Amino acid sequence: MPVTLTITKSKVAILELSRPEKHNAFNAEVIAELIKNIEYASDLDIRALVLKTEGKHFSAGADLTWMKSMADNDYDENVADSLELAKLMQVLATCPHPTLCLVQGAAFGGALGLIACCDIAIAEHNSKFCLSEVKLGLIPAVISPYVIKAIGERQARRYFLTAEVFDGEKALKMGLIHELSDDLAKSEADFLDTLLNNGPAAVKSAKALIDEVAGTTIDDTLIKHTAKRIAEIRVSEEGQEGLSAFFDKRAPRWQTAASE
């Protein structure tokens, strides 16, 4: 199978795309498998989801052979096909667990959508990025809501239109990735250790809070909503345990459980 999902003992889901011979380009089969596995992982009692790929490059985006076959289909068939890619982006962006994306080598086209949909993205120093669609007479349509949210409208106006290749330093400055790494495996372990040290329910609630608050006008409704959210978690079992552990100068139960 081109996509595998592995659940570790520490309750981390590792989602890996393995098509190195095709530079991890995705076609209809890959998209369907990614959707199925992300939806499955979203319903599990896990602590994080890691998205990675096998081989030299993260992903070349859409498989050109598949794209060529789609060009022979009519408009309605192309809409249906594009909606599947849009669904992939949506299920990844709305996964309730923290998501971590590891990028090596090149990430082109739709691959930038996958990166932008993850909560945390780490890339190798030698990584290369490109919104390459206009070179093929296409546009980065279904990934645009997520990529623009990550890099901003101003940067999108340049890179959507020029299809320039840019390096990891620029990707970092634009906000597409959070960190450059000399050792992705070590960075993965470090970020997972950090995430697993935090309250699992609090992490999920904090992620949901971002979607609730981002882009919202700060008014009485939002102020009351955020006050309600913090009150709810303060009186929750996990909130009570976290506060008690802090004042007792001990590790909270979720940390000791994760180390067992």
TrEMBL record:
Pfam families from the UniProt entry: ECH_1
Species this protein is from: Pseudoalteromonas piscicida
UniProt superkingdom: Bacteria
Chain segments annotated as transmembrane: none
Family designation: Belongs to the enoyl-CoA hydratase/isomerase family.
Protein name according to UniProt: Gamma-carboxygeranoyl-CoA hydratase
Lineage, opening ranks: Bacteria, Pseudomonadati, Pseudomonadota, Gammaproteobacteria, Alteromonadales
Coiled-coil region: none
One of the record's GO molecular function terms: catalytic activity
Any GO BP annotation: isoprenoid catabolic process
Matches recorded under Gene3D superfamilies: 2-enoyl-CoA Hydratase, Chain A, domain 1 (3.90.226.10), Lyase 2-enoyl-coa Hydratase, Chain A, domain 2 (1.10.12.10)
